[in-house]
Amino acid sequence: MDCDYRNVTNETLFTRKRKPFPDRFKNKVVIVTGGSSGIGKSIVEELCREGAKVTFTGRNEITGKETENELRKNGHDVFFIPGDMIKEEFCKEITDKTIQKWGKINYLVNNAYRFVDKGRDATEQDWYNVLFTGPVAYARMIANCTPHMVKEGGGAIVNISSISGHIAQPNRWTYNSSKGAVHMLNMCAAIDLAPLNIRVNEVSPGTIWTRETLRGVWEAPPDAREAFFRELNRRQMMQRCGEPVETAGAVLYLLSDDASFTTGHELLVDGGYINMGQQGIKETALIQDAESLSKK
């Protein structure tokens, strides 16, 4: 990606668009947890563009309301419920209010997740936060939504995980362990729910430009900002990081009837990162360095 990283902004960084399938989710009701920003917001937006009615959640009520108002102004049917997925009663409230609002539930996207990035310094509360907003909340939402999907003749669930559930990374005991748990939950739920005509799949993004990825970047000096972007890009097989909409497209595919014979599957949206491995990353960096030197 050829970009002036010294002067990059949200407008220049997020440039990709996808062409929607009109009415693919018409008359369908979808719950998206953590849908007020980042990947979750992009999933909500793309579902709306394809005709779905969407309930979404978020801890930040201001951000959530802004997203809700923005989408409603564009004629979309959305319903924002503020709250914390760590609370069991909130997980139940989401499904109850969705039924009150829309009358049914067809699909679920488990996305909300507290980004707790700790190693051996992790406290008991750190572990509690990441596990109970991650795999435990995912399991609660699946259990709460399943009876309503059965009434509709079936449904589909997509759990957002991460490539971090497959690899070891320094000082990331909490996040990587919990994402690994999501992977196993996904496979077990797929087995149990297949007889009910409910498909359960998983999307594992790699490095996607989100609020967490870009934390502190906009305040950094131009030189430091440029180094940050170039270093992250050089680690990717495709020589760039992903955008939220690229994850959203994968999620919509797995929810749709196009994936009617797909369950228990993990779809990596990582630009080839996992396949490349450590040696590939090193060699890619060396090639880039050689190319850079040849131009001087």
Tell me the series of helices and strands, N- to C-terminal: HEHEHEHEHHEHEHHEH
The number of helices is 10
Calculate the terminal CA-CA distance, rounded to whole Å.
19 Å
Structural class: alpha/beta
β-strand number: 7
| Low-confidence runs | none
Share of residues in helices: 40-55%
Biggest sheet descriptor = 7 strands, parallel
Query: Hey, roughly how much beta strand do the residues contain?
Result: 5-15%
What order do the strands of the largest sheet run in, or round the barrel if closed?
3-2-1-4-5-6-7
Radius of gyration: 20 Å
Q: What do the pLDDT scores average to?
A: 91
Label the overall shape.
Answer: globular
Describe how the helices and strands are arranged.
Layout: H1 10-13, E1 29-32, H2 38-49, E2 53-58, H3 61-73, E3 78-82, H4 88-102, E4 107-110, H5 124-133, H6 135-151, E5 155-160, H7 173-193, E6 198-205, H8 222-234, H9 244-255, E7 266-269, H10 273-294
Parallel strand pairs: 1-2, 1-4, 2-3, 4-5, 5-6, 6-7
Helix pairs in contact: 2-9, 4-6, 5-6, 6-7
What does this molecule look like?
The chain has helices spanning 10-13, 38-49, 61-73, 88-102, 124-133, 135-151, 173-193, 222-234, 244-255, 273-294; strands at 29-32, 53-58, 78-82, 107-110, 155-160, 198-205, 266-269. Strand 2, helix 3 (61-73) and strand 3 form a beta-alpha-beta unit. The mean pLDDT is 91. It is an alpha/beta fold. It has a seven-stranded parallel β-sheet, with helices on both faces. It is built from ten helices and seven strands.
